[in-house]
Amino acid sequence: MRAAIVTGPGAVEIRQCPIPQPASGQVRLRLEGSGVCASNLVPWSGPDWMKFPTEPGALGHEGWGIVDAVGTDVTNVNVGDRVAALSYHCYATHDLAEAEAVVRLPDALSGKAFPAEPLACAVNIFERSDIKPGQTVAIVGIGFLGAMLTQMANRAGARVIAIGRRAWTLDIASQMGAAEAVLMDDHWRIIDGVKSLTSDVFCDRVIECTGKQWPLDLAAELTRERGRLVIAGYHQDGPRQVNMQLWNWRGLDVINAHEREQSRYIEGMKAAVDAVTVGALDPYPLITHTFGLEELGEALDMTRDRPKGFMKAIITYP
């Protein structure tokens, strides 16, 4: 198989490697592609704790493809099934997954890319946000995740205030249904602006999607008394401080909307498949760039730099 191996900070090689064999309870996928996740960027930068070279295909975890071999004791999928999977070496033409960690893709999605893991994250975050019709919802950070949540909140009947660092991403948020678009430039200007937009009461739900300290502080300020602050950002580059005085005084419900149980991921993946199949969720306008495996380094750099027009990259394997 062909597999990407990260050999050092910002350096990747494509090598020919042995095709793995599924053990009992496992399936092997002939991958069609994988999404590129922003969580790859810290190991890609080469922090002290990172070990190089990586295992073949490592870092990739948003894969989909065809089951081409099954181990013993596998009864839920068959060779030839098209599936999305929760597996962890997807920057390669083949990967192994636990049979219980794959989700069949229906014929309605034939030929379509399906990076199920990030879609599951969006679905699970949305569920834990408990958004109702008529609520005002602020989305802080308009990348792929923030744009997906904007679409879902709008379709749930909420009024969405999108807050982002780039004017063009706010245009996308408006296309996804945001009623208001606010540039994330000045802390107090944003607070005053949202206060005015909400008749001085702020927002019923605020979802922070950046993984950074200042937007987390801002998100709390925008949450109304007895509102719900949802932390969806990936805060893995160091500790965070919170304004407990504000959280306490306003009586906020604070949700850390990250899942770690595999079963929750799989349920989210199944729900995402259903939602996309019936048209309740449409991620495809947000998958903006497609690369080959040899271009993985470029895809990771673009995910880091986020040039104008970039929302989400996928890697495909012809």
Structural summary, described in words:
There is one protein chain. The chain is α/β, with parallel strands linked by helices and 318 residues long. It folds into 2 domains: 2-115 and 287-316, Medium-chain alcohol dehydrogenases, catalytic domain (Quinone Oxidoreductase, Chain A, domain 1, Alpha-Beta Complex), CATH 3.90.180.10; 119-256, Rossmann fold (3-Layer(aba) Sandwich). The protein contains 9 helices and 15 strands. It has helices spanning 41-45, 116-129, 144-155, 167-175, 187-197, 213-221, 244-250, 262-277, 296-305; strands at residues 2-8, 11-16, 26-35, 63-70, 82-85, 94-98, 102-104, 136-140, 159-164, 180-183, 203-208, 223-231, 253-256, 289-292, 313-316. The strands form 3 sheets. Strands 3, 4, 5, 6, 7, 14 and 15 form a 7-stranded mixed sheet that branches. Strands 10-9-8-11-12-13 form a 6-stranded parallel sheet, sandwiched between helices. Helix 4 (167-175) links the parallel strand 9 (159-164) and strand 10 (180-183). The model has no long low-confidence stretch (mean pLDDT 97).
Biggest pleated sheet: 7 strands, mixed
CATH superfamily of the largest domain: Medium-chain alcohol dehydrogenases, catalytic domain
- Strand share of the residues? 25-35%
Compute the number of helices. 9
State the helical fraction.
25-40%
The helix/strand series, from N terminus to C terminus, equals EEEHEEEEHEHEHEHEHEHEHEHE
CATH topology of the largest domain, anyone?
A: Quinone Oxidoreductase, Chain A, domain 1
CATH-defined architecture of the largest domain:
Alpha-Beta Complex
Q: Can you tell me the residue ranges where pLDDT is under 50 for at least 5 consecutive residues?
A: none
The top-level CATH class of the largest domain is: Alpha Beta
- Number-wise, the strands total 15
Protein name: Threonine dehydrogenase
Domain Enoyl reductase (ER): 8-315
Cofactor: Zn(2+)
InterPro entries: ADH-like_C (IPR013149), ADH-like_N (IPR013154), ADH_Zn_CS (IPR002328), ER (IPR020843), GroES-like_sf (IPR011032), NAD(P)-bd_dom_sf (IPR036291), Zn_alcohol_dh (IPR050129)
